[in-house]
C-alpha cells in the first residue's frame, strides 16, 4: 500500500487525462465503478457525469462504521461534483469513481479534467439545499443497488486498511 509520509503527498495523480491511484482502496474503487454490472445501473451516465451523488450515498452507507459526510466540489457558486469525505485516523480523504484522493488531489483533478477555475470543497450536510444542484438518481433506488454490489467488493476491508496506514490528508471543508 502507498503510504504518504506527509500531507503534501498525493494519493492520486493525473496522467493521460485519467486518475492514477496510489492506494489499494483507490484502485479497487475505480475498478468497481468501471464494472459493466455496476455502470449499467446508471441509464446512459457514469459516476463522474451524473451519478456522483448516487455513488457517494452508496459509499456512505457501505462505510457506516466510519465518520463520513457528503462533500460538494463547488466552482462559480455551483456544486459541480459530489464526493464522500472519509475521516480516517490520520486525516481526511475523499472517495469518488476515480478512487481515493486528498483535498488537493480532488481540486487538482477537477481543475485539470473538468476545467473548473477555482474549485473548493464544502460539506453538503451543512448546506443541504445545495444537493438539489446535483443529479436526481438519489431518489430512485440506485444508491441501494450500488450499496448491495459494494458489499461484495472488499471496499470496507480496504477502507479499514487505509485507516490503519500512516497517511495524512487534510482539507478545509
How many beta-strand segments?
7
N-to-C terminal Cα separation, in Å?
26 Å
Overall shape: globular
Mean pLDDT: 80
- Total helical segments: 6
Report the sheet with the most strands, covering strand number, pairing sense and barrel closure: 5 strands, antiparallel
Q: Output the structural class.
A: alpha+beta
Order of helices and strands: EEHHHEEEEHEHH
**Rg (C-alpha, Å):** 15 Å
Strand percentage lies at: 15-25%
Ranges with pLDDT <50 over ≥5 residues?
Answer: 1-7
Domain count: the total is 1
What strand line-up does the widest sheet have?
6-5-4-3-7
Fraction of residues in H or I helices:
25-40%
Any chance you could write out the topology, listing elements then pairs?
Elements: E1 12-15, E2 18-21, H1 24-34, H2 36-39, H3 52-62, E3 67-75, E4 78-88, E5 91-96, E6 99-101, H4 103-114, E7 120-123, H5 142-150, H6 155-164
Antiparallel strand pairs: 1-2, 3-4, 3-7, 4-5, 5-6
Helix pairs in contact: 1-6, 3-5
Describe this structure in words.
- Helices cover 33% and strands 24% of the residues.
- By secondary structure, it is α+β, with helices and mostly antiparallel strands.
- It has one domain.
- A five-stranded antiparallel sheet has the order 6-5-4-3-7, sandwiched between helices. Strands 1-2 form a two-stranded antiparallel sheet.
- The radius of gyration is 15 Å and the shape is globular.
- It starts with 11 loop residues before the first strand and ends in a 9-residue tail after the last helix.
- Mean pLDDT is 80; it is low at 1-7.
Amino acid at each position: 500500500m502507498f503510504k504518504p509520509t506527509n500531507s503534501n503527498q498525493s494519493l492520486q495523480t493525473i496522467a493521460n487525462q485519467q486518475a492514477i491511484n496510489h492506494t489499494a482502496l483507490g484502485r479497487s474503487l475505480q475498478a468497481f465503478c468501471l464494472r459493466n454490472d455496476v455502470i449499467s445501473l446508471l441509464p446512459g451516465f457514469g459516476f463522474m457525469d451524473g451519478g456522483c451523488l448516487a455513488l457517494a450515498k452508496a459509499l456512505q452507507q457501505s462505510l457506516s462504521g466510519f465518520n463520513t459526510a457528503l462533500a460538494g466540489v463547488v466552482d462559480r457558486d455551483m456544486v459541480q461534483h459530489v464526493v464522500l469525505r472519509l475521516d480516517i485516523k490520520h486525516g481526511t480523504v475523499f472517495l469518488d469513481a476515480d478512487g481515493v484522493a486528498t483535498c488537493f488531489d480532488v481540486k487538482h483533478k477537477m481543475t485539470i479534467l473538468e476545467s473548473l477555475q477555482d474549485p473548493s470543497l464544502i460539506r453538503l450536510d451543512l448546506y443541504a439545499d445545495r444537493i438539489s444542484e446535483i443529479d436526481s438518481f438519489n431518489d430512485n433506488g440506485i444508491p441501494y443497488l450500488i450499496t448491495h454490489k459494494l458489499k461484495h467488493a472488499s471496499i470496507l476491508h480496504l477502507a479499514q486498511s487505509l485507516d490503519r496506514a500512516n497517511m495524512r490528508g487534510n482539507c478545509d471543508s
